[in-house]
Amino acid sequence: MASMERITLTPDLSLSRIVYGMWRLGDVDDTSPKAVQAKIEACLEQGITTMDQADIYGGYMAEEIMGAGLTQDIRDQIEVVTKCDILAPAGRHSDAPGKYYDTTRDHIVASVDHSLRLMGIDKIDVLLIHRPDPLMDHHETGAALDALVASGKIGAVGVSNFKLHDWTLLESAMASKLVTNQLEVSLSTHDALTNGDLAFLQERGVAPMAWSPLGGGALMTADTDLGRAMDAVAGDNGVDRAAVAVAWLLAHPASIMPVMGTNNISRIKGFSDAFNVKMTRQTWFKLYESALGHEVA
Ligand SMILES: NC(=O)c1ccc[n+]([C@@H]2O[C@H](COP(=O)([O-])OP(=O)(O)OC[C@H]3O[C@@H](n4cnc5c(N)ncnc54)[C@H](OP(=O)(O)O)[C@@H]3O)[C@@H](O)[C@H]2O)c1
């Protein structure tokens, strides 16, 4: 396995700096165990060991698709992140009347048990609350999460799409500390850089994860000033746009962990190219200004 920078979340847990996201794992014709193994192995060859899942991905099917491809040997080399709290009428929740969030104890515990069974594992390394739930009773949710840590079913707890007040509310009712916040951050969605989301985590010494780091693919095909600015940096560094978009995130001092979402093996094999981009302060700002559509003041 090649060496890859790692981010320490707790004394017992570190994640690879680049994470492989499995939201789209079921969106291809070949979802066989062999195809899943090929994707994970292409990650492992680069030292990318962290796999990002959610109960709801693929209509509550993506965890099972991944699980079918997990040999014990692969399981021993990876960290599994998954999420819960979004209910939508699909798969095992097809009788849900519509979309809603559920952070009750019963739902979280049942969701964790499903995730463990579907992935065929006995521990989730990090469980994230997927979206802030306006009806969250932080005492109930916090106690349920602490109990899951104590039981050994989950190694650590994090959140996703939380604002700082959502974070402090939940953490105030927990014995364990929240270990990460998975936020949308990219050259196309960069509010977190200025709205306090990243600053709050930096102040706490917590490394965020960045979802859709390529803007869900839109950044790769954009025929815009930003697209041309990325192409120029890519050309100078002998890499593609994806590497530039990821290098832009890696250069931020918050220790952002980009969560990559391609199903394409050759694109997976190129994830580490981001580390070969020379991202000077001037280049970073040139890309930022292209993303903003104007000069910084
Ligand atoms: N916490 C949350 O609320 C949340 C929300 C969304 C996502 N996520 C996580 O973040 C992960 C990544 O999200 P994402 O899939 O949107 O990330 P992304 O890496 O920004 O986008 C991936 C998409 O871009 C396409 N793409 C990549 N390279 C391309 C290229 N050179 N040309 C054209 N298209 C290209 C991929 O298609 P190909 O497969 O064809 O390469 C794929 O459809 C997810 O898997 C999930 O784990 C979390």
TrEMBL record:
GO cellular component terms attached to this protein's record: cytosol
Protein name in the entry: Oxidoreductase
Pfam families: Aldo_ket_red
Domain NADP-dependent oxidoreductase: 17-284
InterPro entries: AKR, AKR_Detox_Biosynth, NAD(P)_OxRdtase_dom_sf, NADP_OxRdtase_dom
GO MF, any single term: oxidoreductase activity
Domain of life: Bacteria
